[in-house]
Amino acid sequence: MKRILFITANRLGDAVISSGVLAELMRRHPRARITVACGPVAASYFEPCPAVERVIVVNKKPFDLHWAGLWWSCAPHFWDLVIDLRGSGVSLFLPALRRRILRGGRRPGARIGHLAEAFPEPVTLMPEVWCRPEQETLAAEILPATRTYAALAPTANWEGKIWPSAHFVEIGRRMQARGLVPVVFFGPGEAEKALASPVIEALGHQNGVVLDLGGQTGLGLVAALLRRCAVFVGNDSGLMHLSAAAGVPTLGLFGPSRASEYAPTGKAAHFVAAPGPEGEAPIAGLPVETVWHEACKLMPDEG
């Protein structure tokens, strides 16, 4: 039985994009035992994957000592294949039959297209998400099928990517008027909660039909919850990529980040960008009416 080492990202968004590589590996090697090495934020995303027997959490350390720790964890094993998406070079010092090391750093073009270089021939990658049965069951209890839900993700990892809270509130109120229940998602930690709080409070005070599902630690559960939503509207973030990979009709909002590189990828993934030069357009310049018009195309006809 083949052993595969898959070294991937720290950030959630990059990890979700990289799951297209993992899914392709699973398709090509259905009986392989796969070890994933990733950052702590992404660990619970890969844990439910049925082909993954181990997740090694790579916690960043001074002087790049985290790579030495990864080598120490992996060196006792012989690997049939090592896929290193980080361009770390640690793969060169591991016993392996074959290895594929992608160079790091940003470059023009879609990130998911760059990752296809992990394979010797052209391939189209599609991100995936995995959930455990108990996570699906819990998601059904939290978001029962008696209502129709709309996911809002008003946070991001840096301020420039965050559409104004008041705009999210307006979108949420219009969703409520259509009979949808807004569900606010955000990442773990007090900083993320503080960013999402104005949206949660404003929509909750409107008529009480808003659910706060931010800060969930198990990303398999988050994916299962997202799948129970009829539509997703959110900033360019890991949650946006997770929603798109889960097959949710997804509208990603872009300002100074580049949609040409990081647009969501999925069966029903869409984006809208603020007017102006790509990579420089202030996201506050993205009009509510533009977002609402595009979101309505993705929503069910009746809430």
Features:
303 residues; alpha/beta; Rossmann fold; six-stranded parallel β-sheet; five-stranded parallel β-sheet; 11 strands; 19% strand
Here the CATH topology of the largest domain equals Rossmann fold
**Could you name the ranges where pLDDT drops below 50 across 5 or more consecutive residues?**
none
Order of helices and strands: EHEHEHEEHHEHEHEHEHEHEH
What is the radius of gyration computed over CA atoms, rounded to a whole number of angstroms?
20 Å
What does the largest sheet look like? 6 strands, parallel
* Overall morphology: globular
Structural class: alpha/beta
The CATH architecture of the largest domain? 3-Layer(aba) Sandwich
Under CATH, the homologous superfamily of the largest domain reads Glycogen Phosphorylase B
Q: What is the number of E strands? A: 11
CATH first level of the largest domain: Alpha Beta
Distance N to C terminus:
49 Å
Count of discrete alpha- or pi-helical segments spanning 4 or more residues: 11
Structure write-up:
By secondary structure, the chain is an alpha/beta fold. It has helices spanning 12-28, 43-46, 65-74, 111-115, 133-142, 165-177, 190-207, 219-226, 238-245, 259-262, 288-298, and strands at residues 3-7, 33-38, 52-57, 79-84, 96-101, 149-153, 181-184, 211-212, 229-235, 250-254, 269-273. The strands form two sheets. It has a six-stranded parallel beta sheet with strand order 8-7-6-9-10-11, with helices on both faces. It has a five-stranded parallel beta sheet with strand order 3-2-1-4-5, with helices on one face. Helix 1 (12-28) runs parallel beside helix 9 and helix 5 crosses helix 8 (219-226). The longest helix is centred in the middle third of the chain and has 18 residues, at 190-207. The mean pLDDT is 93. Keywords: Glycosyltransferase, Transferase. This is Lipopolysaccharide heptosyltransferase.
